[in-house]
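Supplementary material to the annual report.
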Amino acid sequence: MTATEKGQLVTANRLRDGIAVFLTRSGQWSEVIDDAALALEPQAAAALELRAKDDEKATLVTGAYLIDAERREGRVRAAHIRERMRALGPTVRLDLGKQAEGKGAGFAAPEGV
Amino acid sequence: MYRYDEFDHQFVRDRTNQFRNQADRRLKGELTEEEFRPLRLMNGLYLQLHAYMLRVAIPYGTLSSRQMRQLAFIADKWDKGYGHFTTRQNIQYNWIKLEDTADILDALAEVEMHAIQTSGNCIRNVTTDHWAGAAADEIADPRPVGELLRQWSSLHPEFSYLPRKFKIAVTGAPNDRAAVKVHDIGLRLHKNAEGAVGWEVIVGGGLGRTPMVGVTVRDFLPEHELIGYLEAIMRVYNLYGRRDNKYKARIKILVHELGAEKFKSEVEAEYARRPHASTEVEERELKRIAAYFAAPQLEKLPRWSAAFEEAKLKSPDFARWAKNNLGPHHADGYAIVNISLKPDGGIPGDATSDQMRVMADLAERYSFDELRVSHAQNIVLPHVKKDDLFAIWQALQGADLAAANYGLAGDIIACPGLDYCALATARSIPISQSISRKFANSARQDEIGKLKINISGCINACGHHHVGHIGILGLDKKGEEYYQITLGGSSAENASIGTILGPGFAGHEVADAIETILDTYLKLREPDEEFLAAYRRVGPKPFKEALYATA
Amino acid sequence: MPLLKNNTLISDTWIHAGVDGELPNAGDVIVPFVRLLKEWESLSQRDGKLGVELGNVDRAEALSMFLPRLSAVILPFPAFNDGRAYSIARQLREMGYRGELRATGNVLPDQLQLMLQVGFDTFDIGERFPLSTWQQASKQMSLAYQRGLFRRGSEAEIWTERHTDAEPWLEQPHAG
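Predicted assembly:
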């Protein structure tokens, strides 16, 4: 039984196509939120953010920011419904977006709604 | 319909090339995102939750079959096979790539369309009555003025960096279907006692965070003075509108803070001060444009269509659709067909590329090649022979476009909300779907009668919830969605802003709450009294009691 | 700092004076608007050309009595998307001002053509973009719908162009 880790990750939109992406441990940008590097401490989060700012300058991504999230059994879940939506696609069109392309996260966006 | 001449063609070509260059420079890093954002917005390109979104203008809501087919083509080639018709007579594509956008703009230019100024702090796509040129109650077709304003406002060098966005609506009919009183500028055509026509100029209406009904600054402006006078209004706003606070930057706040009289005197002073060149060119331009909007060659038909009456007798479903979805045409033997994009449980305003092509075909065959997009997110075939209505209905049925709920509880206006929109605080579409399912029973909808339900997923109010008879506003409370209900709003000639009823509801409670409100209405209404009239008679009290008493 | 004028780089020959402090005896000088108000009498009798730097919250009409004596007006863009100076520029031109009208502050190539159209003729452009970018940006649109704008050489005013001849559009069959 793995514990739940709570922390922050960096998300942005890819500049050329606008797709929501997440910064990974190797410094790449992945469309899958489960690949995201989860910073458990503020210092680590700041380092991730700095890295993202470089990639903004390099015109890879735009609008990078930190979000609260948790990792459990290898799956990452964002704290806010808006971010869960970005990690999946529209809840009213399950046939579209990451959820339909095998890039979705391991949760449903509208839990509790 | 308006057709581009060589100048219009050159203009959109230049504009597309300019954007191609700007997008290239952004991708190369020569422009920062902050610098690029207003440039892309003024070409309709947003960055939303899942991808870029492109908002294409459908000027004053009019388009041809060819243009509709091109919209379908764009949906298939560069998006995911559908589009979303908006509350401002635009269409939005949700899955666009920045690197494709200039090509899409080229494809639009091919059919005399563009995405110019569908966003940004500039003068937005001018909207009007979706029944323009067809309505029985119309004084004159407002679209020539709509087109004149489209041209005048396109890349206006003085007014491209306003304090905030700026929306103009125009109506040529006494029954206001263009919501002119809740726009930054609303223009209403009317006749004076001598029978001459002029424009009432209404300024400072709007929704959003601070909903307001506009004030009249000129009661009867002669048509040839329109451009000069609007320039004076725009200049006063550009110079003195607030830029320190985004939420106080719309012209309605300036009008409110200065006071209507002071605002008016600033405008009049500016108008008087400006050198008044002859308006002969504008007048000739308006005449040139108006020629394109000449009425189609309608046949002289009897008012009574035997084929239509017979079909209604044979098919109760058709009869119900005909009762709800047709509008009165000014010519005998013709009707206005309102195609509802609100199937039971569907997404308001969404249409697939196949549906777009079906509607384009119908327009070509039965409606002089013309379609309209309404601010209620429906499609209109403006000039249809009553004899053809049954055939049209059958074709619509085959394409899942025959929802017979026009103007009823199922005809819900909703913004995209948190499912797509980066600004939203809550989802709108699922709320709309749950209400739509609850009232899917047609007899019940008919019993309730005329009703406007509007849903917005944030305070920016793209779903116009303040002017819904029933308005629903989605908000965020500590990461959870909840919904506030307002009653008594209207965007028509008797415009009013709805009143908040009480504490909000969780998403799954909203449809039940609406049902309680409507059950209350059914109990207290007088014969033939519509919801809004009943609410205005009794006020919020009985609805509050019904909703909150049991809690 | 280089200035852009007529699509070429020129150097700024004006002396920029502050709100107070000594003015040089000769030479062309640009003063802030408050100083113009305060020292109008001495300034107007000075040798050399006189210019003023206006704020974008100042009213154009406040300059009207000074305009005949002014050879340069500088209008600021505190941010590229603060559009107030577009209106002030146009107002000054409508008041008959024909001298130099200079845009300063956050001036970027993508707004250059709009600035030219409302009557700016000189631009404080900094060194971020090469001259070729500015030159290209100044002519991206070959046409404008609005009348009464400032335009150069090849730029056409659509409504005027359409209606210079007799009305050929009357012949076109395009009903419906």
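Chain A touches chain B through 30 residues (CB under 8 Å).
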